Amino acid sequence: MRALLALSGTRAERQGTEDALALSHRALALAEAHLGPDLVAICHSQTAMLLGRSGRPLEALTELDLAIAGGTGMAPRDRFVVLLSRGMVRMELGRAAGAAEDFAEAAALSAEHAMVRQEFMARHNLGCAAQLAGDLPRALRIMLEADRLPVDISRAVAWLDRGRVLLEAGLVSEAVELLDRAADEGRDREQHQVQGEIELELARALILLGDPAEALARARRARREFGRRGVTGWQRRAEVIMLQARGAQARPSRGLAADALALAEDLGSSGDPRRLYEARLMAAEAAARTGDWDTVSALAARLSRHAGRGGLETRMRWRRVSAMAAGHRGDHAAAARQLRVAADDLRRSRSVSSSLDLRAAVTLHAGPLEQLDVELARSARPPALLVALERWRSLASEPPPVRPPADPELAEGVVTLRRLRAEARSDPGDAEVLERIRSLEIDLAGRFWSAQGTRTPTSGPSGQTASGQTASGRATSAARPRDVVRRVVAELGERDTDLAAFVRGRGSLAAVVVRRGRSRLVELGTDADLDELARRLGADLSAAASVLDGPLAGVVRASLASTLQRYRDTVLAPLDLGERAVVVPCDGLTSVPWGMVPGRVGLPTTVVPSLSAWLDGTTRVRSPRVSVVAGPGLPSAAEEAERVAAAWEDDRPCLPDLDAAAQDVRAALESSDVVHVSAHGTHHPESPVFSSLWMADGPVFLCDLEGAQIRSSLVVISACEAGRSRRRAPVSHLGLATGLLTLGVGSVVASPCKVPDATAAAVMGDYHERLRAGEDGADALALAAAGCDDPMAGAFQTLGGSWRADS
After folding, report:
1. Between the N and C ends of the chain, which has fewer C-beta atoms within 10 Å?
2. Mean pLDDT of 705-722
3. Which stretches does the entry tag as region Disordered (predicted)?
4. What is d(CA 540, CA 52) in angstroms, rounded to the nearest whole number?
């Protein structure tokens, strides 16, 4: 019997499951005729494993229930296999709670009998169950803990599963990197089934990265491999991914919906409910693309019975299809309801994480929903479009409701990274140190993503700190978007300020302009024009920062001036904004230094990720506590810091720290209302949480600050690139400045590009003197920049809300 079962496993891996099932049934017949119930249970378990591979999970679960019930006297290793198998089948059927119970019992059994290899598998699969339940940080944490167990076992399956979690979380490039490692491991160990599964996940990643053609090619290769080996269940799953890749193409074929429906019929007879749901959802999406609304409505009715099925991406796709169907039949209230439910679901998925990076990445799934919301609202009045934009952009700017736990090992890792970065700075060519830095960054990023902490206290609609700091609207991001828009319009009128909220859609750029209580939609250039302009601006700003003098300096500045003039002509001039303006940029406009664009030079312009961020960040502080810190290597840092400190001397003593360490920056943020940092800044495009400011002992990273209890309402970063950010999702960008806003700082002053040190020093001294005199922060910055001879002074911009010191 044992020999037959072992042979069935080999046949399944090499030749397919049909011959393997025949061997398993022979073994079961032997056990039932001549052996005891525990060995019968083992045969049921092996049969279940083969049925699961064949895509017949309901039959597999029946076999495993028989094994569990009849095998009470099984040896620990055999009982472990049955528990693990039933947990995996329950996962396939979407039964996360039952799966978690089986994996937890299997892990406890393994630990009791010192079966480290088995404990690794059980604990890892417990993380998979957490993913299915929607708790992505917990899933990552459990998987990472399991991966650290000292066991000699192929990590291909474990890395594959963790790659799936990263994809679900929107961390697509990170998932691809891990899946490539898993593929190498699978090839080395000749794990053919795992290699095919990895190909499918890489195909999913390529769809999200916008390369459906390559995704389709990979899914086809996987399907051929599964077909060659007779693994029909996985063959069908490959076909589901192939349909998704076809649907993601610019012009999907009209036969796509019919192909998806045919696959759904096949899956319905095989007892694979998760893939059946995905195929029907794909059919509905394809029918919507071709305008077959009868098919969409019929499928939407069938899918609605399982609206909560699947992971976050699947749930977001279902809500989008439902909203599209409702919008087509003219039921705009139902469409809006589906979009609200989707936004709430996304908010809950983000709420369990304290990681800025993970929270930003998860909003990847909001992109198509925001696009639909905007499309439905664009034909209505402009305020409706503002509501649609706020619904999704407020997600990206709201602070984490949980604080990461104290983790000495993680803190030690950050200290090590700081030391390695210092070594690399003194010897940039040391390849070994650079490799250690990248490896440590990957490890630390994973641990930050998996951090789950305690709830942070929230204040009410208005509040006042011990220092007399008054905020106009705390926790506005939790308010209804319609109420936020109404409040913003009222506030704009009281402050004599205009609003321009940019949006992309239908292949073009547009802006909702609010001026003197009236709103209007202004159509601007095409997406292609905007992307080309953004590319030119990035190149010109980089060149201007690098070529400060010499024969090329004039040419470089002229090119930059020409590009900025084009922004004025194509983007700014049609808006007809007044003196004071609030800008809500969209993708392609997040790095524009508005204070350098002709028509906005010398005028107060505040840049915000969302309308609620502008309301929440608006702060007035009586007798503010001020901290000034400076890092090494800036020729003008000491002069700038001393002048900034002197600007506040009449209020209370303010001694600049000219030799500040990383911990001093965090301490200043936790104790002062205003923090001014003069230091070298570095934006980390691959991992934004490792964007940093260079201090005496090395860099202070954005991730250093995730657990800080920040008091500061105004942070001024006189450093290069501190205002830059990485596009984590269509509605979410992450960098040093945007990260500080998300962590609760009301207003941040930073530049998205490099600014000469002498220019920064001249602007910042004047800026703080104006703040001390009681001027509004945006006004003070605009006037200070206008008073500087260098046009690059306009690169500094106010991000977030309005800030003012009360006498």
Report:
1. C
2. 85
3. 451-480
4. 57
